[in-house]
Amino acid sequence: MPIQALPDTLVNQIAAGEVVERPASVVKELVENALDAGARRVDIDLEEGGVRLIRIRDDGGGIPSSELALAISRHATSKITSIEDLEEVATLGFRGEALPSIASVSRFAISARPRGEDQGARLEVDGGRVGEVVPHPHPEGTTVEVRDLFFNVPARRKFLRAERTELGHIEEWLRSLALARPGVELRISHNGRASRHYKPVRDGGERLRRVAEALGEDFTRQCLAIEHAAAGLRLHGWVGLPTAARSSADQQYFYVNGRAVRDRTVAHAVRQAYSDVLFHGRHPAFVLFLECDPRQVDVNVHPAKHEVRFREQRLVHEFIYRTLHEALASTRAGVAAAAAA
Ligand code: ADP
Ligand code: MG
Question: What is the ipTM of this complex?
Answer without folding.
Answer: 0.99
